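Morning. Coffee machine broken again, so started the prediction first thing and wrote up yesterday's gels while waiting. Chain of 568 residues, entered below exactly as on the submission form.
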Amino acid sequence: GLMAVLQQADSAFAQTASPALTARIQGVRSEEAQSRKLRIERLNVDVRIHGTIAETTITARFDNPGESILEGDFTLMMPAGAVVAGYALDVAGRLVDGVLVEQRQARIAYEARVRQRIDPGLAEVDRGNLFRTRIFPISPHSGRTVRLRFVSPLDRRAGYVLPLRKTEEIGTFAVTIEATGVARVPDVRIPAAGEGDWNDGGRRFAFEARSVQLDGDLQIGWAAPAAPLLVSRHSNGESFFQIADEGPARTRADAPRPRSVTILWDRSLSRRDDNLDEEVAVLRQYLEQVRPQRIELRLFDATTVESSQASTIDALVNRVRTVTYRGATGLDRLAAEPVRADACLLFSDGLVTIGRREVFHPECPLFALSSAADADRPFLASLARDSGGETYDLTVREAGEALARMTRAVPRVADVRSAAGQRIEYSLLEAGENGWRIVGRMPASGEIRVRLSGLGGGETERLYSASGPAAEADGPGALWAAERAALMAASDEPDREALLAFSRSYSVASPDVSFLVLETGRDYAMSHIDPPANLQPELLDEYRRVRDEMKQSETEARGRRLQTVLAQ
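Came back before lunch.
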């Protein structure tokens, strides 16, 4: 039997090799049961780039040439900022799509299959962009296939980077790349010997190699988009835009220096394994560049806030270096006292575990910085955006770029509206030192007005108009929806049904919503889960039959209970 769950979860599966495949005989977790028979027979990497966003489909076929039944454990590092938008497993020789299910329900279904001694397969994604799937059984002289689809924004400097390092020998490794909405063909680097070719008028790249060991990255260079605004149509029928633009050189002038700066330093236990040295270095350089007259330090966790005035930069840095990290993360105590300053710097992973998130509204432009691979970036981004500031992910963004944007008069998005003046709910992507990247729903008018600060005196408005037909691409919609779903899940009183419906509408996994694949129609019926549309017809018939039998049994049971009550 087979069941698979794809979810967002906190885990520590990171490995040096990517992809990595290990096997255990009969799924027994011991050194004696490990097997080297299982291999990746074929690894297909299909990347479709539209403008500045990539959609990737990874298809992996595992082969078991031995005599034992094996469990496969497959891990893959995804690009930074990736959002899982699809998952499938082969059931009876056919790839079946996962259905999005509330995480608790998915876990109940998983445990039920285990209790029935139907060995499950489990697949998940952690906050550090590591994908993992465990598949059982993989029969002797047979194989299994998994398919993962994810969306990721291109990095403004590095472009697209997929780690493919220190692998065992792969039978066949194939890469295809399609580039649309770009001004030129991007550069491609393959971590294997051989040359690929662009064909189809320079729109499609193909590469294939046999019996290869990979040790490097699949890299696709940044290419400027064909137009500042590109429109795409999501598979659910909605239209989305992506805007990628930048300002003139004069925006490199220094910004007005803040006279007062408040440092909000999260000292909860979850921060202990962050890259604190880099955070301290950024903090020191920022203060040395702006030289504020007044510096306040607030060390906080869920239960206490310790406030102090720093006499010198050295004194503040020394205090931060000696912080003891303890307790849970919370904002209630921090929000109890107003935060007023010309600029605020928040150093946190954003993983609030106690109390309410929505109580914290700093009365200052907030720069939120994180160095944790598992940081809650959607929450930090919304917190900074609502205050007129920005968020910086130090795991993928250079410290110098973050400093430049905090200390120079760089363009910042203040507002996004339709031509008719209706506010557009948008998400920001990292755009380098001097640019801006925005994704959101496309208004019917076909025009978008973006209000920017930092392009000169006061605020500036840019008008963007759609030209040409919309491309078929899920990328902008998936990135936009993933941030919305994360914020819905993190609200103080989340509506689980609304979150599930929203996630299904855009096919995005989130910390509270999982992709689920079951083996039989009976499994779906017993778990009270609607099966995917592409489940085999005979399995759909089985699901409907068992579902109807269960409904009839429930109706009869209610009738018997009613008769018992009436008799009593």
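Confidence is low (pLDDT under 50) at residues 7-14, 117-121. Going to sketch it on the whiteboard this afternoon.
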